[in-house]
Amino acid sequence: MRVASWDIGKLALRPRLVWIMALSSLKVRLHRTFLTMLTIVTSTAFMMYLFTMPRSGDLTERQSWMLMLVLSLLVCAAGVLNTMLMSVTQRYREIGTMKCLGALDSFVLLAVLTESALLGLAGALAGVGIGLVISILLGLGEHGLAFAQHLRLDGLLWKVPLVFAVGMALTTLGAAVPAAIAARMPPMDAMRGEK
Q1: Rounded to two decimals, what is the model's pTM?
Q2: Are 163 and 47 in contact (CB under 8 A)?
């Protein structure tokens, strides 16, 4: 005797649906979105300030500069990783429901990564702008109208895209581990809210 099989289908990986889900997730969890944005903006603004601040060729000062740059990158990555882990944990049931309805692992992975990329885009843009404004204001306060001679504003055409790209990359890479956890989660465990 043959038993009938039930085919519930798969959620198709449509970019429009992934964008809609990512945007709605950001709106629903507004406090988490704000905290993540604050981490990204602060880190990228500090990085932009580091690239434009005046510095001498002294070895100790260069080492201090490199240490501050590495610390700003670590703070950004740790903050985003922590926030995205919280996001995945809060969404276990939602992810479980999507997987029970046929969402593929790649769909869940792309949804979480898209959400983090949107945060990275907005945070990196704001951080670059705020960092430049802070550098200019501090330069004006210290050197007056001759601030441009003291700040390292040369090479802004590569500094701005570099800081923006680093902010975006850190945000997306920081979300890669939580996204992989969410994608591989068994549907029934996710429905129970377990890891």
Answers
A1: 0.75
A2: yes
Tell me if 83 sits within 8 A of 39, measured CB to CB.
yes
Other Cβ atoms within 10 Å of 38 Cβ, number: 15
Euclidean distance between CA atoms 175 and 87, whole angstroms: 10
- According to DSSP, residue 11 is labeled B
For the chain, the domains span 30-192
Closest CA to 42 of 117, 113, 124: 124
- What is the 3 state secondary structure string of 94-141? HHHHHHHCCECHHHHHHHHHHHHHHHHHHHHHHHHHHHHHHHHHHHHH
Cα distance from N-terminal residue to C-terminal residue, the chain: 39
Cα(37)–Cα(120) distance, integer angstroms: 8
Tens of pLDDT, residues 81-128: 777 777 777 777 777 787 887 778 888 888 888 888 888 888 889 998
